[in-house]
Amino acid sequence: MSSIVSIKNLSKTYDSGFEALNSINLDINKGEILALLGPNGAGKTTLISTICGIISPTSGSVSVDGNDIIKDFRKTRKIIGLVPQELTLGAFDKVWSTVNFSRGLFNRKKDDAYLKKLLKDLSLFDKKDSELRTLSGGMKRRVLIAKALSHQPKILFLDEPTAGVDVELRKDMWKIVRKLKSSGVTIILTTHYIEEAQSIADRVGVINEGELLLVEKTKTLMERLGKKQLIVELKEKAYQLPETLNKYKLELNEDGSLITYTYNAKDGGTGISKLLGAISEAGLVVKDLQINESSLEDIFVNLVKKL
Q: The domain 226-294: what is its CATH number?
């Protein structure tokens, strides 16, 4: 798969000496959804702002569709759409004029049919003559997306697009993102809603303290770093586990009612059948069984903790 954004040894150090980015190397594939995860201050927004030409890098290079972001900044800016975290909109401007003006900033020809379809796709068309100050926070967020897409960019950056948005509206947002991807737009998003990144992103990148810890396909990451746990509820509490169960590396909870067995299903078998047999032979009676699986959030937290 060909890359549309190529980042080489990108670093950013501010005058204060704070190093926001440290030797970032990343290729973003054409037509993919890449989710960038990281705690506050990790460098996510700095990375996006640098690619978009808002912040100048200290060293390294970024090319967008084969164009250097500094030497060919006019070309790269036309290719990119950005939805920032902040709701930066004029209070008394109207929806249609705001989006139409954004298109004109990029010297795109007038195309009312495209803008009409765009506003309809974002459920904004019935608000086209409304002043922005009258809209809810969620609708304003949609206007920011419309502005970012007004010039028909190949790449869309979404910096915390669902921050402060209710659950129902978040679901609508992700439907929009999936639709954009199907039309060929490459999407890079940052989000605190890790479960959504897990369901929508083709790949996940984890950033912490300005360093890119890893970038992997979401499914591969879940398989490689995820774990499964069998929770065995005992009919009668055990004060300690019999020595015959030591080889299974089990954990007994404080009150002796639950046994936890952690395993990797890809290691050539789970060993659950043998374990249950061994538990029975040890004289313990099973009341119930439950299987838990790591979420992307578990993986993310564990990765950051290791630093």
A: 3.30.70.100
